[in-house]
Structure to design on (64 residues):
């Protein structure tokens, strides 16, 4: 899994797997779900991330 923040576009992306994206759907305003050929979620994109996330450049991994 990869987490990327692009300050130029203010987009936060969470990539679950590196597979070609065949469809994208805006699940709710500013949240894009990218699907692969199997219909599985390949990544999520959050638009205007700095307005929605406290620290878009900081990631905390929490094991349960």
């Amino acid at each position: 899994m990869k987490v990327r923040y692009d300050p130029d576009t203010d987009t936060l992306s969470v990539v679950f797997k590196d597979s070609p994206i065949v469809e994208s759907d805006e699940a709710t305003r500013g949240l894009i779900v990218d699907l692969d050929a199997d219909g599985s979620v390949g990544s999520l994109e959050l638009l205007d991330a700095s307005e929605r996330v406290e620290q878009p450049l900081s990631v905390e991994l929490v094991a349960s």
User: Anything to note?
Assistant: The first strand starts at residue 2 and ends at 6. The CA atoms of residues 1 and 38 lie 18 Å apart.
